[in-house]
Specification:
By secondary structure, the chain is an alpha/beta fold. It contains five helices and three strands, in the order αβαβαβαα. It has a three-stranded parallel sheet, with no helix packed on it. β2, α3 and β3 form a beta-alpha-beta unit. It is globular. The relative contact order is 0.15.
């Protein structure tokens, strides 16, 4: 989303976060819809994610990266092999970043009901929310 403070959704989010005290944790994800960008390469996506994580670093003490989920069909730009490749690529890139935690859930998403090709059933998001909350509460000072 282009705004007066940035050309992308990521820049707009980073700007908004910078207006406040640093956050203990920011939970982010991107990529599923990026696959529909004409001529986007795996390399470009990887560079975009590195840039995104870097612009969040000053506003987020820890960044939780949520892996891309699997899709319901293979008839669109998003395909299981490419999603898996992008997830693995980001996992490898973030191993050296001590401020990034990756939630690996691609395999778990394969058997979950989808609302459409890309979006999961609401029960998936409820379970993910609960899992993240239970994992984060013990490590974030209240």
């Amino acid at each position: 989303m282009q705004t007066t403070v940035g050309n992308t959704t990521q820049e707009s989010l980073a700007y908004f976060l910078s207006l406040h005290d640093p956050h203990d944790i920011c939970i982010v994800n991107t990529g599923l819809h990026d696959m529909a960008i004409r001529n986007i390469t795996d390399y470009t996506f990887g560079q975009n994610v590195e840039w995104y994580l870097n612009i969040l670093k000053d506003s987020c003490q820890k960044v939780v990266w949520i892996e891309l989920t699997d899709v319901a069909t293979q008839t669109y730009f998003q395909t299981t092999p490419r999603l898996k490749k992008w997830n693995d690529m980001i996992f490898e890139k973030t191993k050296e970043l001590d401020y990034v935690w990756v939630v690996r859930l691609f395999d778990a998403s394969k058997s979950i009901k989808h609302l459409d090709n890309a979006h999961m059933d609401s029960s998936w998001y409820s379970a993910l929310n609960k899992m993240l909350l239970n994992a984060i509460i013990p490590v974030v000072p209240l």
